[in-house]
Specification:
Blueprint (H helix, E strand, L loop, with lengths): L1 H42 L11 E7 L18 E9 L4 E7 L19 H19 L5 H4 L6 H12 L6 H42 L12 H35 L1 H6 L1 H27 L2 H12 L6 E4 L3 E2 L5 E9 L9 E7 L5 E12 L6 E9 L2 E8 L6 E13 L5 E12 L6 E11 L3 E17 L17 E17 L2
Parallel strand pairs: 1-2
Antiparallel strand pairs: 2-4, 2-5, 3-6, 6-7, 8-11, 8-15, 9-10, 11-12, 12-13, 13-14, 14-15
């Protein structure tokens, strides 16, 4: 007993120690998992992050007459935009988008009941049409006259009457012909049953497609694709069996014909009946082949795709991202009815964006006038004696302004009217005078013009100008002229500028 207690105690202690160690490992593992989750979260891309730059969306509500469509206004070159059309029945409408920058012209291939022009469905229709014709060619008549089906009723009754009166030696041929006719009647019945099943399948597809374009919700058609696949598989199998059986029956009859060829060809009634039988064999085989062609895998898949790819009546159309490459995007959004029987008219929406840029840049030349000017002084020398002179000074009457040319950099904002804007302005300039002097201009301005326009700017201007030298005073009389009457000094003034502006 003591041994058992000791063992249990040892296990508990060891388990506790192991548990402590294991907990430590678990905590470390959790930290690593948390770190990985953070990295994955940081690297995770949403649907807009695949494209460098801004990603804008233009939303159009197709169910209403939307008079105002919010358009992106701050796109830059290289940015992307998408067009989303809400509440549109894509079973009824094709959507075309034409952009001046990037063209995305994609007709949705979603079929409707009117889109049965697919090659597969044409084959199907052809097969069904042939089957219908076959039914007309082989009406259900008695076994007695079925073998002369290709003949008129009057002719048939005449031949039957004549055959009934034939000698017993010809009874074998008569029986074979009648038996073959009965067999062909059974095969024709099977054939017509398969034709109706194919027609029902096609009609159910058309009903489902019709319901998909019925916005009144009066049609609620259920269509089970899995059951349709099973139906197609069963038809393929049974048509194959019918084809094989019919081939064996035809071969058997042709062997009999070769044995009795002389008797059959010598009797006009037998000869005509034989011809009718062979034509029926050929017609049945041909129509079975057409139905098998219609039910081939690629054609069957095409038929079922027309159901699988039907959209909800109030679906959304979302274009691929379209890149904005120029100054303006001119987009034409077209909605084309998939069939004229729908009674819908094409619709078109044209829009251009950005309709207005909130901000703009401009680097253009302007002419300016400023309050900066150069002072000018002259000296007057009066000779008093050979060794004595009096020099006086006068200030010249100069224009206290200057004109010049400046290259101005503007950063502005458009007002509510896109042709008007205000901006901050700065840039270098040069004065136009006998001395070319550099200038620095800074201030604000007003622009008129949507893209090309006129600008008026005003603000402060700084530059070096000529001012009186401290070597003399204007009222002083000196014995000689100073080396320089003026010196260059940095001064600040005001300016007004007029110029051309091209908004970037």
């Amino acid at each position: 007993m003591k041994a058992k207690i000791l063992i249990v105690t040892a296990l508990l202690i060891g388990g506790f120690a192991w548990g402590q160690q294991d907990c430590s490992k678990i905590e470390d593992l959790n930290k690593r998992i948390k770190c990985l989750e953070d990295k994955i979260k940081a690297l995770k891309l949403d649907d807009k992050a695949y494209f460098k730059g801004k990603h804008s969306e233009i939303v159009v509500d197709f169910s209403t007459t939307q008079k105002v469509i919010p358009l992106p206004q701050e796109l830059k070159r290289g940015d992307f935009y998408q067009i989303r059309v809400k509440k549109i029945n894509l079973n009824k409408w094709n959507v075309l988008i034409n952009s001046a920058d990037t063209t995305l012209t994609t007709r949705l291939s979603t079929p409707t009941f009117a889109d049965l022009q697919l090659d597969a469905l044409n084959n199907l229709v052809a097969a069904i049409s042939s089957s219908t014709n076959l039914v007309k060619q082989t009406p259900e008549i008695s076994e007695k006259n079925l073998f002369v089906n290709a003949l008129s009723d009057v002719e048939a009754m005449t031949y039957i009457s004549e055959i009934d009166s034939m000698k017993a030696s010809e009874k074998e041929i008569k029986d074979k012909i009648n038996n073959t006719n009965s067999l062909l009647s059974e095969k024709t019945t099977d054939h017509n049953s398969f034709a109706r099943r194919i027609d029902d399948l096609k009609f159910n597809v058309a009903k489902k497609q019709l319901a998909a374009i019925d916005n009144s919700n009066q049609l609620d058609i259920e269509f089970n694709v899995e059951n349709a696949i099973e139906e197609i598989e069963d038809l393929r199998q049974k048509l194959g069996e019918l084809q094989e059986t019919l081939g064996k029956n035809e071969k058997e009859y042709l062997i009999f014909f070769e044995k009795k060829k002389k008797e059959i060809e010598s009797n006009e009634n037998f000869k005509k009946a034989d011809k009718a039988l062979k034509e029926r064999f050929s017609s049945l085989k041909g129509n079975i082949s057409k139905m098998q062609e219609a039910l081939k895998s690629e054609n069957s898949i095409a038929l079922l795709k027309s159901i699988i790819f039907l959209k909800d009546k109030d679906d959304e159309y979302i274009s691929l991202p379209i890149q904005f490459k120029s100054e303006l995007a001119e987009v034409r959004l077209q909605f084309l009815p998939k069939d004229s029987l729908l009674g819908e008219s094409p619709r078109t929406i044209d829009f251009i964006f950005p309709t207005q840029k909130k901000s703009y840049w401009s680097v253009d030349a302007s002419f300016y006038a400023s309050s900066l000017y150069d002072e000018s002084f002259s000296s007057i020398t009066e000779v008093i004696s050979e060794n004595e002179k009096d020099v006086s000074f006068v200030e010249e009457d100069v224009t206290k302004a200057e004109i010049g040319v400046a290259t101005l950099i503007r950063r502005g904002l458009n007002s509510v009217d896109p042709e008007k804007g205000i901006h901050f302005v700065f840039g270098p300039g040069i004065s136009i005078s006998d001395k070319i002097r550099p200038r620095l201009l800074i201030g604000g301005g007003y622009s008129i013009g949507k893209k090309h326009g006129f600008s008026i700017d005003f603000g402060g201007i700084a530059g070096y100008v000529e001012r009186k030298s401290n070597a003399f005073n204007i009222n002083d009389t000196l014995s000689e002229v100073p080396n320089s009457l003026t010196v260059s000094k940095l001064k600040v003034g005001v300016f007004i500028a007029f110029g051309y502006i091209f908004k970037l």
